[in-house]
Design goal:
Elements: E1 4-7, E2 10-13, H1 19-39, H2 45-60, H3 72-90, H4 99-106, H5 111-127, H6 163-166, H7 169-178, H8 182-185, H9 190-200
Antiparallel strand pairs: 1-2
Helix pairs in contact: 1-2, 1-3, 2-3, 3-4, 5-7, 5-9
């Protein structure tokens, strides 16, 4: 029998699959979008976009660095809210209205891209002692025997045999970190790092 735990206002199932957590976020964001549709029906797109960034997106991104959507289904469920919000922002509800064009028009990245950027940004901060986490407990420089493709910024990968652990913060983010070009990973400031990430990640 799977029991539910609670963190803040979001329930988490004890099997760590986050189904209840994702459902709770989806319900909360959908309700907030309905509120905005009633209150901002005649507002300009710029006003609606600001409302989305301020009131809806933070709900969709609640603790997503450590509790990312575990499956494609979970990720799609949250992204669907942002897509619905974009259609509301520009009053484009026809199936022929391209959601890709709405993303481009708004300048909004997908939630998946923002999650990847935020996870890597947080790892950058850990590595540069900008947050109160002892990096030596989790992160070890990686120096493989073969130096042909080695990178100075590489970290020792986690040996994750269980999918849930593999999808958790450190295993997933270290893998993404090691895949970064050295020219990005070694940038001297977090601001420059994030700007380069936005251009690098698709």
């Amino acid at each position: 029998m799977v029991r539910e735990l609670f963190s803040e206002s979001h329930p988490i199932s004890s099997d760590l699959r986050w189904n209840t957590h994702i459902d709770s976020i989806h319900k909360k964001a959908f309700k907030k979008l309905g509120f905005l549709k009633r209150r901002l029906k005649l507002a300009a797109p710029e006003t609606k976009l600001t409302a989305h960034k301020t009131l809806i997106r933070p709900i969709l991104e609640y603790c997503d660095i450590v509790w990312p959507p575990y499956t494609h289904l979970h990720a799609s469920k949250l992204e669907k809210i942002q897509k619905l919000s974009l259609r509301f922002i520009y009053n484009k509800y026809n199936s022929t209205d391209s959601i890709t064009e709405l993303y481009n028009r708004s300048g909004l990245p997908t939630l998946d891209k923002r999650r990847r950027i935020n996870r890597l940004k947080f790892l950058y901060l850990i590595l540069h002692d900008r947050v109160r986490i002892d990096r030596s407990n989790y992160l070890v420089p990686f120096h493989p025997r073969s130096t042909r493709h080695s990178r100075s910024h590489a970290l020792k990968p986690f040996q994750a045999r269980i999918n849930i652990f593999k999808a958790s913060y450190f295993p997933q983010t270290v893998e993404a970190w090691n895949a970064l070009p050295e020219s990005i990973a070694t940038l001297p400031t977090c601001e420059a790092f994030v700007v380069s990430l936005r251009d690098h990640l698709v």
